[in-house]
């Protein structure tokens, strides 16, 4: 379990990373302000457009006026927020009328999101854009961690089935989930809260999830053939000697449970009273009908993303 001193260090690091991102944002805003100042307004001697043209212009502007919306969400994360055709954010935008501003990128790990600076810089840009539109963000959504424990990283989390201690390797899982990912999530939340305090004038509600129980059946994106991504779980199970699906499910469920416990611990820190852990476990079936809900080992189908989006909408309001 991550220690309180570890959390304190991660909170301070998040604040430092936010300060750096805010400084870069101030530089970018100076550049933008200079660009706006160079814009030449229409001269006082210019004639007004004809009445017919004015009518068409008014109609065009009316069409461009912001429609009714459930609120603006700023989102940071991985492929659950950035997936071809259907993902959580597309469903929230189309099915629940939220405005979406996203810096999510499929394949990103939580540690990249926390420490590389790229998503954080883009996050400050999206906050500035939302504020220029005259609205305040309703919530911030975070999704991450799947890429840190799946794929090439997955097999190392397992002891061999033929060893005297089959199942998850406790010391490695503790190091990855309860230390590395815990610290990264704490740093992200600390940075996000610091940025919002400076730019929005308050902390904004944050919702983060811990995924659902997947089925390690060897299916990747589009079948996982050739250069297509995946599978992410079955190869690790196969290498470590786990052939039975029931046994695989038991171990992956335990890993998802550990991940959700970690996320729950993050949001209970006193610094993050604005954060909510959305527990998605058992939202999607992993029974005999699982292919209706899971497109592959890590990602839901459209129907699955619909269910996940409904859970989000219920929490966001």
Low-confidence stretches: none
The total domain count is 1
* Main beta sheet: 5 strands, parallel
Total helical segments: 10
Can you tell me the overall shape?
A: globular
CATH topology: Rossmann fold
Distance between the termini: 32 Å
* Rounded average pLDDT: 91
Helices and strands, in N-to-C order?
HHEHEHHEHEEHEHHEH
> What is the helical fraction, as a range of percent?
40-55%
Index terms:
Rossmann fold; 49% helix; 10 helices; two-stranded antiparallel ribbon; 5-stranded parallel β-sheet; alpha/beta; 317 residues
Describe it:
The protein has helices at residues 4-37, 51-64, 88-96, 110-115, 118-132, 146-149, 170-199, 234-239, 245-267, 302-316; strands at residues 71-76, 98-102, 139-142, 158-159, 167-168, 206-209, 275-278. It is of the alpha/beta class and 317 residues long. It has a single domain (13-23, 69-316), classed as SGNH hydrolase (Rossmann fold, 3-Layer(aba) Sandwich). It has a 5-stranded parallel beta sheet with strand order 2-1-3-6-7, sandwiched between helices. Strands 4-5 form a two-stranded antiparallel ribbon. The radius of gyration is 23 Å and the shape is globular.
